[in-house]
Amino acid sequence: MGLWTLEERRNHADLIEVFKIAHGFSTVSLSKMFQLDPSERTRGHSLKLIKCWRNNNVRKYCFSHRVISKWNMLDGDTVTAKTVNVSKVNWKKNIQRGWVYSWTDICSTLRL
Questions:
Q1: Letter string b/e over residues 23-54, b meaning 16 or more CB atoms within 10 A of that residue's CB
Q2: Quick one: pLDDT at residue 101?
Q3: Is the pTM of this model over 0.85?
Q4: Does residue 71 contact residue 45 with C-beta atoms inside 8 Å?
Q5: How far apart, in Å, do the first and last CA atoms of the chain sit?
Q6: By Cβ atoms counted within 10 A, which residue in 11, 20, 83, 93 is the most buried?
Q7: Is the distance from CB of 16 to CB of 84 less than 8 angstroms?
């Protein structure tokens, strides 16, 4: 049927929320939730996020920690889109072209 799994829908919703935060469509400030990568050597897009490592497991499952690797894997067109809908369309095109794998493949690769 081509339906997404529950995990894929959750990850997609998380990425939409990060998109809204990064582009100012949310009341949450980007600087309060995430830290942008200041280096200019980033591959992919200019909105790469830095993952701050913690010694405890409390933060491991928080929204702001679990979405960073997934966000950094997105392509530049999806991340720098003007609207949420354009970002969704770009994401779906990348899935159809095979440029983006399923979330289960990505999560197993990243060991999430």
A1: beeeeeebeebbeeeeeeeeeeeebbbeeeee
A2: 52
A3: no
A4: no
A5: 26
A6: 11
A7: yes
Return the structure tokens found at 45: 């897009």
Residue 104: CB atoms within 10 Å: 12
What are the pLDDT digits (tens) for 67-83? 888 888 888 888 889 89
**Average predicted confidence (pLDDT) for the chain:** 78
- Cα distances from 106 to residues 13, 37, 52, 112, in angstroms, run 16, 21, 20, 8
Domain layout of the chain by residue ranges: 6-107
* DSSP characters over 18-54: HHHHHTT-SSS-HHHH-EE---S--SS-S--EEPPP-
Cβ contact 8:16 at 8 Å = no
**Does 103 score more than 70 pLDDT?**
no
pLDDT digits (tens, 9 = 90+) for 18-37: 999 999 998 888 888 888 88
Match 């928080």 to its residue by tokens: 62
Beta bridge partners of 50: 35
